[in-house]
């Protein structure tokens, strides 16, 4: 499937919930609004979109949220999507709080890789950023995931928390290193890809200024003078990777602000409420939930939740045709580039938690 700029679109990020068990300041602080449960797509509806996407050329799917592991049955959904013909990889992004307990189920379902969010390895600061004392839990989950043998990536948002006014450092700690260094050092001892992601001016994130990755790259070169480009394929995303002598893993940069990669963008996003979105910068896209629920195949339970079985749908071919038309229409209208460098030109007003990570 190609967009109007000739880019191949083969990667879909699917948010399965707008709920989370953390309250990260730049994503979902206390008071953030949530969609009514009945407006969230069922697993069967998500599978129907994945089936249609695969027929159109989607090959890689990332399960996101919110926090996907707070939704009951997430492992079952992974298995459902893994069984879709044409889908080559299914990976998951998580904050890691529930990962260790859910890891056996994810492995059994066939998960192909796990991304774990971690912005700092300072316990007090982690608590201040996320609203929870969960650092040890997350670091234990990272180690467990590495032991399992599946590919593991650690994602850190590039914010200078010192300049942003975050105190929260562990008392008595001497010779404090920058947060990015403490996270990067995970790649020295573990076979993980540690990626730094520039903060984009979306939702609550507009309150925080990103660390310029041109500056960060220079700092990385100073600290790790033997760092060299890593040309190996690490996944379907836009990160640029580097190898450091003596490290078991790699370091990566995802530089949406200062390393614009729109010309190679291959992704679309499905929100938890079923809106197919083609660019983070703009609100444009197609409402797939309306397509899925417009006919009599969609019924409501007594509690108001949607019950929909694609396999039982009598007009499945017609539904797939309508879904395909809607998805292709969205892809054709995908913009050529974002305008994060000109926040005043952005038209997307939703928060990242509403869009999906």
UniProtKB/TrEMBL annotation:
It comes from the Bacteria. Its cofactor is [4Fe-4S] cluster. One of its GO terms (biological process) is Mo-molybdopterin cofactor biosynthetic process. Its EC number is 4.1.99.22. Keywords: 4Fe-4S, GTP-binding, Iron, Iron-sulfur, Lyase, Metal-binding, Molybdenum cofactor biosynthesis, Nucleotide-binding, S-adenosyl-L-methionine. InterPro entries: Aldolase_TIM, Elp3/MiaA/NifB-like_rSAM, MoaA, MoaA-like, MoaA_NifB_PqqE_Fe-S-bd_CS, MoaA_twitch, MoCo_biosynth_MoaA/MoaC, rSAM. It catalyses: GTP + AH2 + S-adenosyl-L-methionine = (8S)-3',8-cyclo-7,8-dihydroguanosine 5'-triphosphate + 5'-deoxyadenosine + L-methionine + A + H(+). One of its GO terms (molecular function) is 4 iron, 4 sulfur cluster binding. Residues 4-228 form the Radical SAM core domain. Gene3D superfamilies: Aldolase class I. SMART domains: Elp3 (SM00729). PANTHER family: MOLYBDENUM COFACTOR BIOSYNTHESIS PROTEIN 1, MOLYBDOPTERIN COFACTOR SYNTHESIS PROTEIN A. This is GTP 3',8-cyclase. It comes from Candidatus Caccovicinus merdipullorum.
């Amino acid at each position: 499937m190609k967009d109007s700029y000739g880019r191949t679109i083969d990667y879909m990020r699917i948010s399965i919930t707008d709920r989370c068990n953390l309250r990260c300041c730049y994503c979902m602080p206390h008071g953030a609004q949530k969609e009514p449960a009945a407006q969230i797509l069922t697993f069967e509806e998500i599978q129907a979109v994945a089936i249609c996407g695969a027929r159109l050329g989607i090959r890689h799917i990332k399960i996101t949220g919110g926090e996907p592991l707070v939704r009951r049955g997430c492992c079952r959904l992974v298995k459902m999507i893994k069984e879709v013909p044409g889908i080559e990889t299914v990976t998951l992004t998580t904050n890691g709080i529930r990962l260790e307990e859910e890891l056996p189920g994810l492995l059994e379902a066939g998960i192909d890789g796990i991304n774990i969010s971690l912005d700092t390895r300072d316990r007090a600061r982690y608590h201040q950023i996320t609203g929870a004392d969960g650092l040890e839990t997350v670091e234990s989950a990272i180690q467990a995931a590495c032991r399992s043998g599946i590919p593991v990536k650690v994602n850190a948002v590039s914010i200078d928390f010192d300049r942003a006014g975050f105190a929260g450092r562990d008392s008595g700690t001497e010779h404090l290193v920058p947060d990015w260094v403490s996270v990067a050092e995970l790649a020295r001892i573990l076979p993980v890809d540690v990626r730094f992601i520039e903060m984009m001016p979306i939702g609550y994130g507009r309150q925080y200024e990103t660390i310029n990755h041109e500056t960060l790259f220079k700092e990385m070169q100073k600290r790790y003078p033997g760092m060299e480009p890593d040309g190996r394929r690490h996944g379907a995303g836009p990160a640029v990777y580097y190898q450091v002598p003596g490290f078991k893993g790699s370091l990566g940069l995802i530089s949406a602000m200062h390393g614009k990669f729109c010309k190679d963008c291959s992704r679309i996003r499905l929100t938890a409420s079923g809106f197919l979105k083609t660019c983070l910068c703009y609100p444009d896209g197609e409402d797939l939930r309306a397509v899925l629920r417009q006919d009599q195949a969609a019924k409501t339970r007594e509690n108001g939740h949607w019950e929909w079985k694609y396999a039982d749908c009598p007009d499945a071919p017609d539904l797939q045709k309508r879904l395909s038309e809607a998805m292709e229409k969205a892809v054709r209208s995908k913009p050529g580039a974002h305008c994060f460098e000109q926040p005043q030109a952005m038209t997307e007003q939703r928060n990242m938690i509403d869009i999906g990570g």
